[in-house]
Write a structure and sequence with these properties.
Length: about 375
C-alpha cells in the first residue's frame, strides 16, 4: 500500500542516516525474521536481549524514524478539506455509467414482460424479435457491468485511502515508540516482532480469502458457461424433437390409410387360406384315423404274443429253478467229499514229508561216517 511504502522509505532513510544497524549474534538486531525464516518462531526472536550499546544504537534509529514519520504526517494535506473535490473529480463518469445501467435494466424487465405476453403461434415472429432484443440488452448489461467495475477499480476512493495512510502511520509510530520503551526497560523488542508476525498472518489470511474468491468466481463462470451450453443444447433437442414428432404424425396418418386398405385385402386372403388349410387338415385327420385303427390291430396282436411269451418264460423259470436246486445240492455233496479227500491227502503228505526228512538225515549221517572211515583208512 501507499502507507507501507512511504513508512518503509522513512525507516530506510533513518537507518541510512544513523549508520549501520547493530549486530547481535552475527545478525542485524533490527531485522525482524518471520517464523519461516528463522525456524524458531516470533517468540524466539523477541526473546533476544541486546547489549547496552546495541540498545542505544537501535533506540537512536527508531527515534529518528519516529521523527521522520511525524514530519510526514504534518506535511500531509487535510483530507476532509479536499474530499468533495476528489469525489467530484472521479464520480461524474461512474454516475453516468450507473444511470445507463439502470436504463438497460428497466428495458430488460420490460422486454421480459412482453415476451411472456407473446406466447402462441400467432405471435411467433414478434416473439423472435423480442427474444433477439432481449439478447442484445443482456449483452449491453454485461458490458456496462464490466465497464463499471473497471472504472471503480481504476478510480479508488482517494480520501479514504489517505485517511487509512494516516491511521497506519499513527499506529506505526505508536508501535515504534512502545518498542523504544521496551528496549529502554529490558533490551528486547518483542512488541515489534509480534506486530510484524501478526500482520504477516493477517496478510496471509487475506491472500487465502482472495484466492478462494478467485476460485469461486472461476467456478461460477464455468457453471454459467455450462448452463448456457446446456440451455442451448436443450433448445436444439426440443426443436429436433418437435420436428420429429411432426414427421412421425404424418407418417402415422399415412400408415393408417395404408393399413385400412391392406386389412381388407389380408382379411379376404386369410379367409381363403383358412378354408384351404381346413380342408387339408380334414384329409390329414381321416388319414390319421386309418393309421390309428391299424395301430390298434397291431397292438392287440402284440398283446397276445406278449402274454404267450410271458407264460413260456415263467414255465422255463420254474424248470431252471428246480435244476438249480438239484445242482446246488449236488455241489454241496461233491464239495464235502472232495474236502475230506483233500484233508486226508494233506495229512499223508505231511507224514511222507517227515519220513523223507528223517531218511535224508539218516543218509547224510551214513555218508559222513563212511567219509570219516575212508579218511581214517588212508
Amino acid at each position: 500500500t501507499a502507507a507501507s511504502e512511504e513508512d518503509l522509505g522513512a525507516a530506510r532513510a533513518a537507518g541510512q542516516d544513523a549508520g549501520d544497524v547493530p549486530v547481535v549474534n552475527g545478525a542485524p538486531s533490527l531485522a525482524v525474521a518471520t517464523p519461516e525464516d528463522n525456524g524458531g518462531g516470533a517468540e524466539e526472536v523477541g526473546d533476544v536481549v541486546l547489549s547496552a550499546i546495541e540498545t542505544q544504537r537501535a533506540i537512536a534509529i527508531l527515534d529518528e524514524t519516529i521523527e521522520k514519520l511525524s514530519f510526514l504526517g504534518s506535511i500531509t494535506p487535510d483530507v476532509l478539506q479536499h474530499r468533495d473535490e476528489l469525489s467530484k473529480f472521479v464520480g461524474d463518469e461512474i454516475s453516468h455509467i450507473i444511470y445507463e445501467q439502470r436504463q438497460l435494466e428497466a428495458r430488460y424487465e420490460e422486454l421480459i414482460a412482453q415476451r411472456g405476453a407473446l406466447k402462441g403461434l400467432a405471435n411467433k415472429s414478434k416473439y423472435k424479435e423480442v427474444q433477439c432484443e432481449i439478447q442484445d440488452v443482456s449483452r449491453a448489461l454485461r458490458e456496462s457491468t464490466k465497464n463499471l467495475c473497471r472504472n471503480l477499480k481504476d478510480n479508488p476512493n482517494i480520501s479514504d485511502n489517505l485517511v487509512k495512510i494516516q491511521q497506519e502511520r499513527t499506529e506505526l509510530i505508536e508501535i515504534l515508540a512502545q518498542t523504544v520503551r521496551e528496549m529502554q526497560e529490558s533490551g528486547t523488542f518483542k512488541t515489534l516482532v509480534m506486530k510484524v508476525h501478526g500482520d504477516k498472518m493477517a496478510q496471509d489470511r487475506l491472500h487465502e480469502i482472495v484466492q478462494r474468491e478467485k476460485d469461486m468466481a472461476g467456478a461460477v463462470k464455468q457453471l454459467d458457461g455450462d448452463l448456457n451450453s446446456e440451455k442451448h443444447d436443450h433448445a436444439n433437442r426440443v426443436a429436433d424433437q418437435k420436428a420429429e414428432i411432426a414427421r412421425l404424425k404424418e407418417q402415422l396418418q399415412s400408415i393408417k390409410s395404408k393399413t385400412t386398405v391392406d386389412a381388407k385385402y389380408f382379411r379376404k386372403e386369410a379367409h381363403a387360406m383358412t378354408s384351404s388349410i381346413l380342408r387339408t387338415y380334414r384329409q390329414a385327420e381321416r388319414a390319421q384315423e386309418t393309421t390309428i385303427k391299424e395301430s390298434e390291430r397291431k397292438l392287440d396282436m402284440e398283446n397276445v404274443v406278449h402274454k404267450e411269451t410271458v407264460d413260456f418264460l415263467k414255465r422255463k423259470q420254474e424248470s431252471l429253478g428246480t435244476e438249480l436246486a438239484e445242482w446246488t445240492e449236488k455241489y454241496a455233496q461233491d464239495y464235502g467229499r472232495l474236502e475230506e479227500e483233500y484233508t486226508a491227502l494233506k495229512e499223508k503228505q505231511l507224514k511222507n514229508r517227515e519220513r523223507l526228512d528223517h531218511l535224508q538225515a539218516r543218509k547224510a549221517a551214513e555218508e559222513e561216517e563212511a567219509r570219516k572211515a575212508a579218511e581214517e583208512a588212508v
